[in-house]
Amino acid sequence: MQLYGILGYPLKHTLSPAMHNAAFRSLRMDAVYVPFAVTPAQLKTAIAGLRAVGVSGASVTIPHKEACTAWLDGLAGDAAILKTVNTIVVRGGRWVGYNTDGAGFLRALREEMRFEPRGKTACLLGAGGAARAVAYALAKAGLAKVHLVNRTPARAGSLAALLARHAKQTVVRTAAWRPSTIAEAAGESHLIINATPLERLPLRVELLERSTVVYDLIYHPTRLVADARRRGCVAANGLGMLLYQGALAFELWTGGHAPVSAMRKALRKTVAQ
User: Fold this and answer.
1) Is residue 65 among the annotated active site residues?
2) Which of 30, 145, 178, 184 lies deepest, with the highest CB count within 10 Å?
3) pLDDT tens by residue, 185-232
4) Both 209 and 266 in a single domain?
5) pLDDT tens-digit profile of 57-103?
6) Choosing from 44, 65, 145, 265, which is the catalytic residue?
7) SS3 state at 233
8) In Å, what is the CA distance from 69 to each residue of 38, 47, 173, 213?
9) Are residues 195 and 143 in the same domain?
């Protein structure tokens, strides 16, 4: 049996095991995916232990997406630029980090919300690992302008610098974490993304244009999504991003096509319980 899992802390509410185990069952694979609740202090030891027992691949979530890079053999794809990892692929004994968050987000945005970023303006709340992946993916997809809003200005500045180096065609603006500046940035944006863990944001949804698309990376229903829908905006939570980044990770691990329908069904069933 092949062993896969997710490294993070805490992991009480992770949906990834339900999604990936449904994929294995759908394809009749002799594999299992389990949660590995690992504190930051245990990360180095945990990765060494998982190497020793022959884990076939892993997902990485908060708070390890950046820290885990120190204990891998290399980074590939977007991860090499972002320096954040959400997927570990094991090949020939080497542990290589990938990042499928950005591509998963874009697929959810395009397939589930019919939104094309090219030539548009976005307002991104947050500047952590997921926000970095989302901003970079949007920039690569032709986003014209992005407003970066974060509670810690230095983090927003770091992300702005990354985009300046690797996505020069996208205009980047940083904004202070204040209701007035957020309102100004959101008011000129076609797309608003919450990439923070906060469910109460200093954002007045009633001021948004009804054509604005709102995406909350939090997986479960949130106040932001509910308020945006009442306003008449197209809005969604992060379940689609979770699904598609997981499907891309599955394909990196196995080399085959992910059974997206089975994975989606398992996620919806788990959330409904």
Assistant:
1) yes
2) 145
3) 999 999 999 999 998 999 999 999 999 999 999 988 899 999 999 999
4) no
5) 999 999 999 999 999 999 999 999 999 999 999 999 999 999 999 99
6) 65
7) coil
8) 15, 11, 28, 33
9) yes
Note whether 264 and 225 are same-domain residues: no
- Beta strand residue intervals within 94-241, DSSP E: 94-98, 121-125, 145-149, 171-175, 191-194, 213-216, 234-236
Q: Which of 93, 120, 113, 87 is nearest to 5 (CA)?
A: 87
Cα–Cα dist 113/42, whole Å: 39
Q: Report the CATH number that the domain containing residue 57 is assigned in CATH.
A: 3.40.50.10860
d(CA 160, CA 146): 9
CB of 257 closer than 8 Å to CB of 129:
no
CATH number at residue 137: 3.40.50.720
Write the DSSP assignment of 74-118 as a string of letters. Answer: EE-THHHHH---SEEEEETTEEEEE--HHHHHHHHHHHHH----T
CA distance 67 to 154: 18
What letter represents residue 166's amino acid? H
- Secondary structure (3-state) at 39: coil
- Structural domain range at position 135: 102-237
